[in-house]
Amino acid sequence: MATEKGKQDAGKSPKKSAEKASSGAGGSGSSGGGKGSGGSGPDYPNDNIRLGAAGQSLFTKAAGLGAIGLAAAVALGSMEGDGFRRFSLSYLTAFMWVLALGLGALFWVILQNLVNAHWSIVLRRVGELLASQAPLLAVLALPIVVPVFMGHSSIYVWSDAHAVEANHALHKKAAYLNSSFFLVRFIVYFGFWTLIARYYLNSSLAQDSSKDGSGIMAKMRAVAGPAMIFWALTMTFCSIDLLMALDPLWFSTIFGVYYLASCVLGINSFLALTAMWLHKRGILLKSVTTEHFHDLGKMMFAFTVFWAYIGFSQFMLIWYANIPEETGWFKERFVGGWCGGWGMLSATLLFGHFVIPFFGLLSRHIKRRRPTLAFWAVWQLLMIYLDMYWLVMPNTHAESPPFALIDVACLVGVLGVFIAGAAMRAKTLNLMPTNDPRLPKSLAFENL
Amino acid sequence: MAAASDFNPFQSPPKGDNMFAQITDNVTRIMEAPKPPRAWYIAFGIALSMLTMFLGSITWAAWNGIGVWGNMMPVAWAFPIVNFVFWIGIGHAGTLISAILFLLRQNWRTAINRFAEAMTIFAVMCAGIFPGVHIGRPWLPYYMMPIPNQMGMWPQYRSPLEWDIFAVSTYATVSILFWYMGMIPDFATFRDRSTSTAKRIAYGIVAMGWRGSSRQWHRYERAYLILAALATPLVLSVHSVVSFDFATAQLPGWHATIFPPYFVAGAIFGGFAMVVTLAVPARQFFGLKRIITIRHLELMAKVMIATGLMVGYAYGMEFFISWYGGSSYEGFTFVNRLFGPYAWAYWTMISCNVIFPQLFWFKKVRTNVWAILIIGMIVNVGMWFERFVIICTSLTRDFLPSSWGYFVPTKFDFMTLGGSFGLFFTLFLLFCRYLPMVAMSEVKAFSPPGGHARPHLDHGHDDAAHAHAQP
Amino acid sequence: MSDHKPQAESTAPELHGILAEYDTPDQLVSASKKVRDAGFEKWDTYSPFPVHGIDAAMGIKMTVLPWITLCAGITGLGSAILMQWWMNAYDYPWLISGKPTWSIPANVPIMFELTVLFSAITTLVGMLMLNGLPHPSHPLDLVKRFGRVTDDKFFLLIQAADAKFDEQDTRALIDGTHPVAVENVLEDRVTPDNFPPGLIYGLIIVTCAAVVPLALAVKARHSKSDKPRIHIIQDMDAQPKYKAQRENPIFADGRADREALPGTVAVGHLNEDDHFYRGRAGGSWARTFPAQVELNDETMARGKVRFGIYCTPCHGQGGLGDGMVHKRADALAQGGWIQPTNMTQEYVRNQPVGELFNSITNGVRNMPGYGSQIPSEDRWAIIMYVRALQRSQAGTLNDVPESERGSLK
Fold first, then answer.
1. The whole model's pTM is what?
2. Of B14, B8, B36, which is closest to residue B26 (Cα–Cα)?
3. C52, C70, C108: residue with CB nearest A24
4. For residue range B375-433, what is the model confidence (pLDDT) as tens digits?
5. Which residue, among A159, A203, A194, has the nearest Cα to A180 in the 3D structure?
6. Is the CB of A225 less than 8 angstroms away from the CB of B361?
């Protein structure tokens, strides 16, 4: 009985709605909706959903910029003459920023499937494409992780067996912080992300041409629950390994959630920008509407607040208890007071990452206008980068943020490669799941 | 208008010639009925006697001093604070359903939001009593409010306990406002359907002359949206502040940065468990099966498994970091939780909160009313034990072995805990009898228009109403 | 279409407006569009729930409520900052747990709570005020069918007060929207007169009664009383315990204070050494300092400090019996005051140290004993210092070093 009901649910889902807005659409927007009950063929408006020539040109540009950026970064890094230590730090910052986008995309895709969201279907393929860059991200991670495997990382103290022997605290943690276990974890993280991202992209593509759109939809939903659990665990431990372990003596139980805030804020901002870029090229012009941008804006607003909540929880509790082994980490980041050194970057994050965008994104008019939304999306992506900088750099540069050209080169390089990878994959695909039974609801979606 | 005596209000099918009228009949007949069902009287009698026990045990504690409880150094917080955090947590599901699910456009919430909100308010009332009696002199809590007093002193705002005062009182106030505002249109319905003058005046006063004007609805909806947007961070802040009570301390097992989100997830988890515990009997006894459907219970089960896993994640992170952090005190505390004198409480918590809810992965379990009810009750127990484990295992064995101890509750501890359920259920049963238990206007807003079959209009309709349409 | 005549034609009340009833929200929306396009201003629609799309159909402008809420929120935030700064850092600064008196991270939770509290209250009150609620009486209340507006029916009302209102034309416009029923709504002449007078008197009485406690409180604040304040809650003022010198029925002798049992000594009170603790040696006052007391500069310095604390108030800095207590008593000249002993007098100088020790321990004449306040070691140190004072007053030229004698002459 129960399973029968489940099938019924799935079959009827186009008629059913969890969207208030569409409930009273009055028929105009949802003209095509309601009759497609799984596999009755594409039912989206006459819209351009192929990247076409724009994809090739994007790939060329992004790959070119990425190559130039990486080459410049390596050149600048070798000029430092510090065994690529400065390069590694810059590269790690840029990588963690791009990883936040890739992981955020994967999270976003899993979440939309998990909660059976209707509004986001038009954007789902873009998310899937970004998430499917997990293998590329694994390759991009090599410059950081290979030295760890080799046992002589210039930025992770614990990769050096001699240093570990000399330090009692590190010695106690060696069961976790050691090169070979790190290798195992690295394979598990990126292996899982690759698998699950491939699964979602492939299922989604199969759905486009399948007669059983709702069947595939049900399968994707069923996978989402376990996938989310493993995503949460891998994301947490990856952030602990790559960011928290830079200072192997410091620890915070909330750290994984802190990185999650950046992932989700990052992907919502990045999706908004991607959709605007596609619009400029006449793609998805009719499918992705102001309503979808409004929703992305709401998510940006929500996760701006969420980031502040998590960041404040972490800071305030450590500040209040004032235990030496924890509080030192923040002390490093407040060097120089409010107006100089790391303290100024901390203040910039407080105001730039929370206070200013909070008021900036408060109004619905701002979220519904493309230029203003684009401004805040770029702003928040920049702030996430500064946040990564704030997490990575103070461990080695005690005085003040060592902003330099090499940071820009690394950022351009890693982001360029990431975008080029996505563009290459996207060239030949539909940029919208055309056969999802929930698509009509998404197309007709209207906010309150 | 249907006269109240026309039908046996708890058995007969709803009257009314269209969908909207059916919804109205379904909800208002509870209030219009001359007598509630016998089960209500039995439940009310039990609740009332438990309430008497509550008042008695509190009076006894106030008269004799709190030495009548088992609280003793090193476990000075013990039951009263465990119960406080437990009840505060219960309240969170109501706000989550009424505010967060509203913002997330989860329209299935309309069937359960009203009584979940009521549950919030009653739970916060229960919660507020415990710190009040725990201070030992329940006539002095005004010291904690910023009131000019004869001592020329002001409250100490750097104390997390002071934050609690503000957080809990703000939460109670905003929850009541939100609840009341949601009920205004429904009070108007009650007023317009009342047959006795007394009821008409009483409901008329609380309805404030609401007549459903669209110009008023416009501002009303906007206000509802704003209150939802305000209540969402508020509900997060309340349990975060409660978690600060612990996490700002340096005590091993209390000082963890993940406490705020972990407490919030746990609160929602426990709150939903309480919602299903109440929803299942309520729909059974008050004939609301058409409005609170199996589908609603299934969705709540899903929320429970999600939040339960978040809580499990926090348990795991605490354990990992207690080892990774390298502090031997932290490490000891967690080993002590597993194998120490309170291991029984710890394993109760783990099995109730992490293991049993996993049954919800099976659709058969999720759609079985009794399974949901039983697992909901198990989770309630588990969440109570979570607070017990946090408070008692950490306090009994802290840094100094010479000050270790073991907390044993007295009969007054149990009477106060059990009695608080009496307060909760007494209020809840009165609410079921006299107030609109389902947000009629909201359910109607998501119903198929007109109640007449109008297939040419593709209006999305809520599952609750959908089930209603084909009984 | 029903065609209702005005209900109470004989009294001929004014026409308030025309009411149309509809079955579905969609009919209401399409009717609203027609009325809006006809250019009416004083009209409204009524529904059991917010009808989707009605705002646009009626041309309702966005409410200012969000801005009011924003202002309230900022006020709340400011109040919280100001309150916490003023109370903790300015008016009652108090150092606790090493945190600055104005600790912003610790103030954030309350800032947040008050922001939300102010915003939420303002939102509800603002919504009610903008909507003109509470609104007890309305002409529509007299229309029987309007009772179903909170149940399942949808209504549209065009007021006669509107500039474009014309009974015939407006009626025709409304008929064109295919309502289920149309009815003329008359002004309410009945309800205001029928406001129950009992309710008014009741309100007046309640208001007056409510002032009484307030008045009592004001009176209490501005008047004086010799009586002790009312002591409702005893806290721990009356404790079930036996105080010193009271009766205790438990014991046969009825005394609350119990004596030590014969032959027992309290811990730390054995004090076997007669010389050290009582100044006795060989059956008479000791003439030497006990062996436990080391006669050195350190003991002398200690003795000077203890002497300064315990002895100078009466005996004076030099031990001459001219301390501040004496000067004060002398100045009051109330009689009966005996000057404290000048301890540099010969008879005191000749007392053995053991006798001096006894005087300090147990007192002599007016002087109380200091044995319970000054430990034995310190009493001996004081005696050492007293001996030095005595010596200083009884010195001869022989005591002065030969090299200095010249300067004294």
1. 0.81
2. B14
3. C52
4. 999 999 999 999 999 999 999 998 888 889 899 999 999 999 999 999 999 999 999 88
5. A159
6. yes
